[in-house]
Structure to design on (358 residues):
């Protein structure tokens, strides 16, 4: 297996530019408002300036990459829906009927759907140009009894995400992540459990797509069994992904790495997207500098994920749909941050006194 793309991408990721961040901060201090009066919106503006090396960072061209894949763990009764729903929802997205399609239209964002490991044949959608084919396999294996995938497959998933980001980059100012995959809250709970250094996944296990609360203990037990039988290495992102991850989670991690290499912001959606971001952060800690956590998921494990990433969500609306919906809403805040940096008057240009405003 040729690991060169993954290795080269990781090696090319540099921290965000602190000097440009400071330049943006000094400029913000000249704007016609009391100091830091727009709070975290100004923090976001500084972050975007540092990521892009441009105090007048662009945000108009937004791309939500929705990674889709199925999971063998569903055979253990950890979710109420069958895997066939993944395929049904992918077709819904292609026809513009999903929640992500609606919110992407509001945000002025384009949605690209990628088949990372859907269990059915999507060749008709691929041939029509509606879906990008990066299928590693028709779903992962059941990680409660063995690895979710081979190490080779994990690398392929990561590199597929990098390639998709590179392919789309010429038309993109800002990336965002989304996903679809019945059962994918289980690998996400496993990933945050391992990276939190805990033996018991229970605090990180939620209802996902509507699991009956009486079955949460069973779901936690299945995830615990998977961690115990696979012994994923928290210091090795590829091993972690291979042992308890998902193909779409690997694809998301690859998109994050690719975006970071190209110095483009990437807005992370909720629970599953944050699992991918965590894998990317293990592989390349500097990639955190290019991540923006779009919203706080209602899944209980997401608070720990945000802590591990060192991020504070931009929004907290009690959402848990996934698909990239929270990221789509957050994209509009990036537009607002740019507008402040490019349209707001300075004290000098507006002939407004600064006295008493600082």
């Amino acid at each position: 297996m040729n690991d060169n793309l993954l290795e080269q991408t990781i090696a090319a990721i540099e921290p965000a530019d602190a000097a440009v961040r400071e330049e943006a901060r000094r400029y913000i201090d000249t704007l016609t408002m009391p100091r830091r009066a727009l709070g975290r919106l100004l923090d976001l503006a500084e972050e975007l300036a540092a990521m892009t090396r441009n105090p007048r960072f662009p945000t108009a061209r937004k791309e939500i990459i929705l990674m889709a894949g199925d999971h063998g763990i569903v055979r253990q009764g950890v979710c109420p829906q069958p895997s066939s729903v993944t395929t049904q929802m992918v077709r819904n997205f292609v026809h513009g009927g999903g929640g992500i399609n609606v919110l992407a239209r509001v945000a002025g964002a384009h949605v690209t759907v990628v088949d990372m490991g859907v269990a059915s044949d999507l060749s008709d959608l691929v041939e029509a140009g509606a879906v990008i084919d990066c299928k590693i396999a028709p779903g992962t294996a059941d990680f409660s009894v063995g690895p979710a995938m081979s190490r080779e497959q994990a690398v392929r998933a990561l590199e597929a995400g990098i390639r998709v980001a590179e392919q789309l980059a010429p038309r993109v100012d800002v990336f965002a992540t989304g996903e679809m995959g019945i059962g994918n809250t289980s690998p996400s709970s496993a990933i945050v459990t391992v990276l939190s250094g805990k033996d018991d996944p229970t605090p990180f296990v939620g209802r996902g797509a509507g699991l009956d609360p009486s079955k949460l203990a069973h779901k936690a037990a299945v995830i615990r069994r998977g961690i115990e039988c696979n012994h994923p290495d928290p210091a090795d992102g590829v091993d972690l992904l291979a042992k308890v991850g998902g193909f779409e989670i690997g694809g998301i991690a690859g998109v994050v790495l690719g975006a970071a290499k190209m110095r483009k912001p990437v807005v992370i959606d909720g629970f599953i997207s944050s699992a991918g971001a965590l894998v990317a952060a293990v592989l390349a800690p500097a990639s955190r500098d290019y991540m923006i956590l779009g919203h706080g998921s209602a899944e209980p494990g997401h608070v720990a994920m945000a802590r591990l990433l060192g991020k504070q969500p931009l929004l907290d609306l009690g959402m848990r749909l996934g698909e990239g919906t929270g990221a789509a809403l957050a994209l509009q805040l990036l537009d607002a941050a740019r507008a402040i940096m490019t349209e707001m008057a300075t004290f000098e240009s507006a002939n407004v006194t600064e006295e008493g405003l600082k």
